[in-house]
């Protein structure tokens, strides 16, 4: 195939809507934990700008033994976590994974992570598509303060 045809073909596929990431990821971060912690938590807001629902089926990272989606559930004044098999994000909707709600549990870290580190993740969608994202590590208080300031700025 001539070189110019390959470039034209690549440009054509890059513009195809089905190859674009189906989710927009905002405010992604991992909570810094003490060095002895065997579980960390990650948060993000996932926005579906498309016309069809997108189902987030799972996630993984080479830096952890496992990544699971969980929901924090409060019943009879007890707080527990329930593992989620998937999360559906409707067309033109955003779903927040945040402290006290839905979140990623990052099990068996392969090393210590400190504020300022970045961690790569793969998101697996029910459609078979995968998305690569990077989440920075932050101290919890720092991120919660930023989120509160952002929310108050919209009132």
Polypeptide structure, described:
The chain is an alpha+beta fold and 155 residues long. It is built from two helices and ten strands. The protein has helices at residues 3-14, 140-152; strands at residues 24-31, 39-47, 54-60, 64-75, 78-84, 87-89, 94-97, 102-109, 118-125, 130-138. Strands 1, 2, 3, 4, 5, 6, 7, 8, 9 and 10 form a ten-stranded mixed beta sheet that branches. The protein starts with a helix and ends with a helix. The model is unreliable at 1-19 and 147-152 (pLDDT under 50).
Descriptive keywords:
155 residues, alpha+beta, 10-stranded mixed sheet, 16% helix, disordered N terminus
| Measured distance between first and last alpha carbons | 57 Å
Helix/strand/pairing class, anyone?
alpha+beta
Work out the radius of gyration.
18 Å
- Give the helix tally: 2
- Number of DSSP strands? 10
Helix percentage range: 10-25%
Strand content: over 45%
Shape type: globular
The low-confidence parts are 1-19, 147-152
H and E string? HEEEEEEEEEEH
Main sheet attributes: strand count, strand direction, barrel closure: 10 strands, mixed
Mean pLDDT: 84
Task: Write a compact overview of the structure shown.
The chain is an alpha+beta fold. The chain has helices at residues 3-14, 140-152, and strands spanning 24-31, 39-47, 54-60, 64-75, 78-84, 87-89, 94-97, 102-109, 118-125, 130-138.
Please describe the topology of this protein.
Blueprint lengths: L2 H12 L9 E8 L7 E9 L6 E7 L3 E12 L2 E7 L2 E3 L4 E4 L4 E8 L8 E8 L4 E9 L1 H13 L3
Parallel strand pairs: 1-10
Antiparallel strand pairs: 1-2, 2-7, 2-8, 3-6, 3-9, 4-5, 4-8, 9-10
